[in-house]
Each structure stands twice: as C-alpha cells, then as structure tokens.
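Record format v2
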Amino acid sequence: MAGPKKESLTIRYIMAFLLLFIMVFPYLYMVLNSFADWNQVDRKLIPDSFSLRSYEWLLSGGQAAEPRPWIRAFFNSLIVSTGSTALMMVTGIVVAYALAKLQFRGRNFLNNAVLFQMFFPAIILLVPTFLIIQRFGLYDSYWAMILPKALSLWAVFMYTNFFRAIPDTFIEAAKLDGASDWQIIFRIMLPMSKSITIVVFLFLFMERWTELLWDMLVVKSDNMLTLNVLLSQMFGPYGGYPGPMYAASVILTVPIIILFLFFAKKFKEGMQFTLK
Amino acid sequence: MRTRHNNRLGWLFASPYLLYGLIFFLIPLGWSFYLSITDWNLIAPVFHHVGFENFMKALKSPGVHAAFIVTFKFMIVFVPMVIASSLVVALAVHGLPRFKGLFLIGFFLPYLASGVVSSFIVKGFLSYNSPVNKFLRGTFSLDVNWLGTPFSALLVVSVIMAWKFTGYYALILTSGFESINKEIYEAADIDGVNGWQRFWKITLPLLYPALFTTLILSIGVTFGIFTEVYQLTGGGPNFATNTWQMEIYKQAFQNLSAGYASSVALIASVVTFISIFIIRKFLEMWGKRNGWT
C-alpha cells in the first residue's frame, strides 16, 4: 500500500490487467456473440466460427418476425439523447451562473431548493409526470422524452460548485469592458470549465442514452421507440434469436463507448476535479 | 435601483429552474398526493375519493411488503459486493506508475452499459445450454435455475449492478488513496506496524471520507433498481426481486391503478427518505466513534 516495491510491481500489474479483463469480458462476450455462427451463440465461452448473419438478419428485419425499425430507433435515440442533453447543459450552466455569480434576493433559497429536490425520492413523481405529459398532448412524441429531462439538478449542482471557484475579479474585469452576462458565461465561465463540461456532458448523455422506464412509458408507436426501449421490447419475442439481439446490443453500446473514448483524456482531467 | 436590477437578472437566469421545478416537481408532487386518495384507474373519466383506503390496502399488500424487504436484501447483498470489488480494483490499480489512463478508462467502461444490454448478456450467459451451466452440470452435476430461484435471482441482479458501478466507485476510492500522505506509511514502517494493522489503523480511517461517499451512493442505488429486474425477473420469482420501482410500475401501468400506485409511491418515498437518513446518521456516528472523521 505504500510506495510499491519493484519486485511486487509485476505481480500488481498482472493483477490489475486480470481484473480489467474480467470487467471488460461481458463486452467481449457480447461482441463475439454478435459475430458468432448462430449455433454457437451462448454455447461457447469464446466462439470460434463467425459470420455477419446476425447483423444482416437484424437490419433486413429477419425472417420470422415483422421488420423492426432498428435504424429508425437508433436515430430516435440520437435525437432524444442529443436534444435532452443539450437542454440539460444549457439550463444547467445558465441556472448555475445565477446561483453562483449573480447577487439577488432569494438566491440562498434557490440553492437550498436545488439541493432539497436533488435528494428528494423522485419515484413519487413518476405517475403524475406521465399525466402532465399526456395533458399537454405530448404523449408519443420526442418532446415527451425530452422535456421532463430538460434540466438536471445534478448538472446545476456541479456547475454551481465549479463556478463558485472562479474568482469574481474575472467577471468584474469583463463587466468593466462592457461584457454582458451572456458574454461572461460563454467567453469566461465556459472556457474555464472545459474539463468539468466534458464530465457533465458524458454522464448526462450516457444516462439519457440508456434510460428505459420513462422512454418506455411515454411512447407507443413503433417508429418512436428509442433503441434501448426497442431492445427491451424484443427481449422476449427475439429470445429465440439471441444472435441478432447481441448485434442490436452492440449497435446500442458501441456509439456511447466511442463517444466516451473520444473524450477520454478530458474526462480523466475532469474526474480528478470532480472527485476532490 | 441597482439591487432591483440585479434581482430581476438573477431571477431571469434562474427561471429555467423555476419553470422546471414548477412543472416537473411541485405540480406532480401535489398531484401525487391528490391521486393517492382516489381510486382513479388512469383511463376512466370518473373516479372517487377513497380517503386512506389505498394506503390501508398498500400496507397489507404482499407486493409492498416484498418491496420493503427486497430493498434491504439488495442492500445486504449488493452494497458489500460493490464496495469489496471496487476496493479490490482501487487497491490493485492505485499508485501503479504506468497505464493509469488505460485503467481509468477501462474500468469505467461498464458504467456505460445499458441495463437492458447487461441483462441480456447475463441472461444468455446463464441460459440452460450456456458454457457456464454445462460446466456446472457436467462437473458438479449442479443444475442451477439462476433466475427462477429467489436468492440466486437477487444475486444475479446484484452482480450486474456491481459490475456496472465497480469502476466508478473504484475511481472515488483511488482518489481517496491518493490523498493519503505516503510519509505516514513510511513512519509506520519504521515503527514496525504490520500489514493488517496498517490497513485498519491507517488506510481505513484516512480512506473513510471516500468510503462514506461510495457507501451512500451504493445505498441510494438500491432504492432505484428497475431495469435489470424488469428485464430478467419481472419482480419474481414470488416477489423475490420486487423493488419499489417495479411494484409502482406494475400497479400504475400494468394494473392501471394510478390512485393506488400513487399511494405506494408515497410510501416508497417516505421509506426511502427515512432509511437513507437513518443509515447516513448511523454511518456518520460510526465514523465519529472510531475517530475517522
């Protein structure tokens, strides 16, 4: 636990890589099975004969089941996740700027309200939020999936904490130069919070991308389903076709992993701040 | 004049929160209370006020009893599991001079998985003809019905969740390790402190803040389990994995008892709030008594 000694370092590396392998194994299993011959899916730990049949079957709609809009579902997920995440970022930044940097009566109250709401058990809101969406006539639309997730209390909280650490002198100097509050947000606050922005963005996006319960409740039509919900609905019916299900799993998982790897370096920096 | 302008500006910038808080917090909250004393079925235009009937029914229902117990069962199984695995990962990785980035990113990957996907993988992995089950049958003549047996179903869901959160919590614990001053260990070495004592007397106390965070986070997770249970067991077998979310979902959207489901949700929130409050206080006391905080 102290400074690692040299002879034990090799053993520790072996340990660490072994653990890493175990943790990544389910993903490997998924990818290999999606390319495996159908008679090997879930029959072998490491399949040894491969084909593209699962992907072809999935994207052409399959022989047994009715054609399923997998590609459409992928774009639905993209639209909903992007729209929702973009809104959560903007509202988070703007509200946090007010809570951290603007002087106004009621600010403390709002700060406490955010904290209170953040720790409030949200389960109680499920049914009435569904009813609100219905009353607004938004049932079965993109807005039904986006609007209730247009603001993240966690994002507000993170940005508020981060903005507080930025010295007021920057803002005062900018004000003297005649900058508006919007300019201060976009020219000073945001450039100074790049790494945390990446962390917040990634967490929000992946949470939105993998949401099940809400997206499943407010959407009915086949062509409105997100990929995650479609996959969930195919769980039973496609049970006899595990190969294509693995292919669909890969299509759902790979984009989010690519996104994550793309921002990995900044994410690393941002996490270091977040965890302190 | 100046303050009034600032007030207006402040509320203007905070207005997205006000709007959101009103539409997606205050109104649903009030509505939920109102619904909980009705017998509304989510569709019919007519409904009646039934007073506390829903609550009486809920307190006697096996589904609600199960949800109450199952949450604590998950806490007993999942929380130690995920804390142990993330401690192991953090211990294995921290202080290694090379591949830091690779480990951080690699161990974090499971956190990106959709619950639907991980459930599907596990279901396949544990299906009747899977290599695991063939091995168990062939070598130990063990025929395990993983998802059909109450305890193993709970265990499987816990493992999926632990897999997902281990990397994230390990990250928190690693930063805890890194905040520990190396000189303390050197001093302990000179004093001839053995490994076991070193862990209990030095590492654990200094790690306590990070450990506290992961404990609270993982306990919070147990109150919100839904996807994995919905995909794999539907709350069964015989309510063995019937979490609060599962019960509320079933009542509201399968049985269409919106009124009754709201009263269950209200009970769930109160139980969640009180449980987390008590556990938190208990953990703080535990830390204080040992002089860790």
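Chain B touches chain A through 97 residues (CB under 8 Å).
Residues 36-115+145-289 of chain B form a domain with the MetI-like fold fold (CATH 1.10.3720.10).
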